[in-house]
Structure formats: structure tokens, C-alpha cells
Specification:
14% strand; five-stranded mixed β-sheet; single chain; 347 residues; alpha+beta
Length: 347
């Protein structure tokens, strides 16, 4: 079985632990990722902080439209949402607070890629903001859900950062800070900031180091293996679904062949009946018969031209039926309808 998920990141770990159904849709079924207005707001705000750019909206838009290969993926709706977020940010007091209160706290490296193998599993993470030695980290969060010191102290993402640094450098970071820029919504339901910045410090202690060591000694490996087992189950289900559908397709093909044969036989039937009828009339024969095998004979069908009064009664009855059907509950019987498609001359 070829692995669909070849590495772990905090976003994958968090998704797996909190919503396995969504994880399968995102990573196995490749369901397009929907960027909410909150996610777009965060991307815009983060790019503004990273680039120290609070005036050139087009530059921020282009940066936020880039994919993982740094190519701009144009999307008019997304660009419009980015522009709206940009305006909402610059019209608030948060920009001044960032420039005054936050600028001195920022480190020189942004979105640094950390990658190493932990317990034979490739783990990847991109830092928000760090120094060159990776001994200091700034992590930024938005959203309505409050961040507290307790939540920061138990945040697995920061545990994972410490583990990656220790595996790569042989030491733990000296200082980790989490900055929370709370958001809310205005009267137009647009995401806006609440103009405040809350800072929390994540300090290593014996309890955190114990959690970090548990990550290294089996925790990450178990999550990775659970994901591989989920993939195996998912692929088995898909195989069975495809197998069932293949059987249905084969039956439909057979049905199509039967309907085609019936049509051809019907045409030949009418041709033969017309010829036999003409021969019987020519020879004044009313009936032909081979005992216990077949018989051919003429039948009569009566038809009448009904008077106008009867036709009017019939039309009135049809109207009454239609009125009745408007309020009555029908008995529904399902049956399969099969129609052959006739290709036009240009298909």
C-alpha cells in the first residue's frame, strides 16, 4: 500500500485527533480546503506583520494568493476577501499597536521549515517567527476562542516545536512566546480585531519535558500508524464500492445488449408479419397452424367515433381526476426505466 500521508505536521496531528472524518476527506479524498473568512483574515494580518507592510494592499494580496510553490493562484473571490480583510485591519488601532508594542519583539526569521525523523516518522513544521539559532520563538494566534496561560502551557504544538529543536540542535529553546490577537465580527459580519494583544510565555518544566519525551517515544509513531491503518480501511471500502459498481455496470451493459436485440427482433417481426399477411390474403387463407407450435391468424380491432356529448363527459372526468390528484396522496411504485442513447451524427 502506497502511503497517502507520508509525514506529520501539527495541523495533521490536530486534525486527526479532533475530527477523523474530516481528516479522511482532506488527506485521503483530497477534498478542496475551504478557507474561512477567519483563516483569510489571519493570513492577511500575518503577512502584514512578516513584511512590515501596512500600505501596499496589492503586495499583501499577491503574497496571500501564493501556493506552496510560491506561484500566485488567481481567484477573484479570494482576492476580494483578502482586500476586505486588509481594509478592516488598517482601519483599526491594531496596526499602531503592532508597530509600537510588537515590532521590538519580532525575530529575524519567518516561516522557517523544521524537518526531521522522530521514531521513524518524518515530522515537518513551519515556525511563525524565530531567531537564527532557533532558541527563541514567537507563535501568533487570532480567533475568538480565548487563549489563557493554562491553554498555552498545554498546547501540543509548542511541545512539538521543542521536540523538533531538540532533535535538530540538541537543545531546547530558551524562550517561547504566544501572541493572541483576539478577533470578533462587526455589524456586517466581517472579521475585525479587538485592538488588543495578549502575550503568554511558554516555559519548559519537568512536566512539559515528560510530555515531549512521550511524543518521541511512541506517541507520534502511534498516530502515524493509526493513520496508515485508517487508509487501509478506507481503501478496502473504496475497493468494495468500486467492485459493486463494476458489477452493476456489467449488468447494465448486458441489459443494453438485450434491449438492442429486442429492437432488432421487433423490426424483423413486423417485416415478417407484413409479408405473411400479404401472402395469406393473396391465397384467401384466414388461419395457419402447426399444432402445439404456432398459429397465425387475423384478428379484428373495433373502433368507434363517439358523439360529442360522450367526448365532453370524458374531458370532464379527466379534469375531475386532475383536481383530485392535487390533494390526494398517491401510491408510488418504483420501476427501472432503461433508455438507450442515440448518438447524433457529429458525436
Amino acid at each position: 500500500m502506497e502511503k497517502i500521508v507520508r509525514s506529520l505536521s501539527w495541523s495533521k496531528i490536530y486534525s486527526w485527533n479532533t475530527n477523523k472524518k474530516q481528516f479522511i476527506k482532506t488527506y485521503f479524498e483530497k477534498e478542496p480546503f475551504f478557507e474561512t473568512k477567519e483563516i483569510i483574515f489571519w493570513k492577511v494580518l500575518w503577512k502584514m506583520i512578516e513584511l512590515a507592510e501596512y500600505e501596499d494592499m496589492d503586495k499583501i494580496c499577491d503574497e496571500c494568493m501564493k501556493d506552496w510553490d510560491w506561484n500566485i493562484q488567481e481567484d477573484p473571490n479570494k482576492r476580494s476577501a483578502i482586500q476586505k480583510a486588509f481594509y478592516n485591519i488598517i482601519e483599526s488601532d491594531i496596526v499602531e499597536k503592532i508597530q509600537i508594542d510588537l515590532a521590538m519583539e519580532l525575530h529575524e526569521v519567518y516561516e522557517y521549515k523544521l524537518q526531521t525523523f522522530i521514531d521513524q516518522v518524518c515530522v515537518i513544521w513551519y515556525t511563525d517567527n524565530t531567531n537564527k539559532s532557533l532558541k527563541a520563538l514567537n507563535e501568533f494566534k487570532t480567533w475568538k476562542t480565548p487563549w489563557t496561560q493554562e491553554r498555552v502551557d498545554n498546547h501540543g504544538q509548542l511541545d512539538l516545536y521543542c521536540l523538533l529543536i531538540h532533535e535538530l540542535k540538541g537543545y531546547y529553546p530558551d524562550i517561547i512566546k504566544l501572541y493572541w490577537l483576539p478577533t470578533t465580527e462587526n455589524e456586517k459580519w466581517d472579521v475585525i480585531t479587538t485592538w488588543e494583544i495578549q502575550v503568554f510565555e511558554y516555559k519548559l518544566n519537568d512536566e512539559k519535558i515528560k510530555r515531549i519525551e512521550a511524543m518521541k517515544n511512541g506517541w507520534i509513531q502511534k498516530i502515524f500508524m493509526d493513520i496508515q491503518e485508517a487508509q487501509r480501511i478506507w481503501e478496502d471500502q473504496k475497493f468494495n464500492e468500486n467492485k459493486e459498481w463494476l458489477t452493476i455496470e456489467q449488468e447494465i451493459v448486458e441489459l443494453n445488449d438485450i434491449v438492442t436485440t429486442i429492437k432488432e427482433l421487433k423490426i424483423r417481426e413486423e417485416e415478417l408479419k407484413e409479408k405473411i399477411s400479404a401472402d395469406m390474403i393473396k391465397n384467401s387463407v384466414e388461419k395457419l397452424e402447426a399444432e402445439w407450435i404456432w398459429s397465425a391468424y387475423f384478428t379484428e380491432r373495433k373502433s368507434y367515433e363517439y358523439p360529442r356529448e360522450i367526448k365532453m363527459k370524458e374531458d370532464e372526468l379527466k379534469k375531475e381526476k386532475k383536481e383530485f390528484e392535487k390533494t390526494a396522496t398517491p401510491t408510488i411504485t418504483k420501476s427501472l426505466t432503461f433508455k438507450q442513447k442515440t448518438l447524433s451524427s457529429n458525436e
